[in-house]
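Recall the central idea of this unit: under ordinary conditions, the amino acid sequence of a chain determines the structure it adopts. In this exercise we apply that idea directly, starting from the sequence alone.
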Amino acid sequence: MIELFESIINNKTILVIGTYYCVPITIAVIVLFFLKTSRDERGRAIIGKASIISTIAFIILVNVFAKLSMRTPMDFYSMANGVQWIYNIVLTIQVVAILIYKKIE
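Accordingly, the structure predicted from this sequence is:
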């Protein structure tokens, strides 16, 4: 498992893919924050619930990454790749949670 993690995190192609994925997901989060439906009380409650979920995911992912980085040697690409994908995963969770809560409520 650690070897698989090392091969993924040291891959420069995955870093580039993560960088290209970062732009649309960041734009999606910004758009969802500033939509007209997100400005009322119900919209702010939805964003709040989704933010709680994404914050919990961020805490878990950062701790897992910190534990794994103690076991494997990290260079610039490894650290950048790890941070980039933590950011991407947290924003993806945020977008999905907002969309699910909007469907439910």
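Helices lie at 2-9, 12-34, 41-71, 76-104.
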